[in-house]
Design brief:
By secondary structure, the chain is α+β, with helices and mostly antiparallel strands. The protein has two domains: 155 residues, no CATH class; 102 residues, Homeodomain-like (Arc Repressor Mutant, subunit A). 49% of the residues lie in helices and 9% in strands. The strands form two sheets. A five-stranded mixed β-sheet has the order 3-4-7-5-6, sandwiched between helices. A hairpin with a 3-residue loop joins β3 and β4. α3 runs parallel beside α6, α4 packs antiparallel against α5 and α13 packs across α14. The radius of gyration is 20 Å and the shape is globular. The two termini are 37 Å apart.
Length: 358
Amino acid sequence: MGLNTQHPPVPLPEQSSAISGEGMVRVGGISLIPGLLESFGCDPRTVFGKETLELEQVRDINGTVSFSAASRLLARCVEASGCDHFGLELGRRITPFHLGIAGFVVVTASDVASALQALSRWMDIHDRAGAPTMQVSETSLVLGYAIYASEVEVPGQIYDMTMAFACNMLRQLCGEDWAPSEVLLTRKPPRDLAPYRKHFRAPIRFNSEQSGIVIPAHWLQQPAALANPAMHQYLKERAQASQDESDRTLVGQLHNVLRQCLALQDVSQETVARELGMHPRTLNRRLQSEGTTFRAELDAIKKGMSEQLLALTNMNIGQVATALGYGSNSAFNHAFSRWHGHTPRQWRVNQGSEQLTQ
């Protein structure tokens, strides 16, 4: 079924309310889960509950829920449906309009490049537990997504969902026939590749150090199908007002930038401070006022990313070390042992054993 390029299926919110608190996300596409469960013959009431989210919490598409609780719900959905690509199926149904104001700003942009810039600029109005990433080269742009919230279940399903959505967004901008040149997924290959091939219509690289869709550079100047300069400006003003109301901490903003800089293999304090629009000394001073340091937050991001790569992919230890910017396996082993009391190899074996007993 093609995307509706004439009338958005989700109404524009009457007010641009800000998300309150790190690790939170708008309901948005989560509202589609009950219907998707029913398509698998499951009763949503048996899946929703105290350990995840209550069914009533996802009825308001503009409501806010814990990203951690939403991930637990997604894990229960995989179990109940018996579908190990449930995240992909959910992402296939999500359109930019499920992102609220952020999505409307994206689709009304003049061209694809402007739309992606808007996504990066305004996504935190919708999602305060992860962030889009972009890597630009002469021939392509890799549009990705990185989770930086802690205590997240089934991150591989979340990456499936976000990349499926990203394809939908580009098809909303460029036309239903659009396809990426390649798809990168931070997960082991699934049992059934057919649903992935059907949706993405492109080569898929599993066991990737990042999740992203590769967009050929020539598409960046493509005029957007729903471009509307006047509406775009109005929505940008509403998005800015929403961000101005946000209680987002500097640490939350820092985690977003650190993820992107790690993907570019440049996490110097000078580079990160520049991306945040401040001098390194100012960054240090403000982090101290929030009770932390640049080194501690970089360490936390590397810890979370190492756990994801070791648990979700078949990448060897050296590849994980390189992805995280370590100069040697021994340096990575030392850091990982400090975090966990185990080497990366031991931790991966223990994780596999735990999954077998669940």
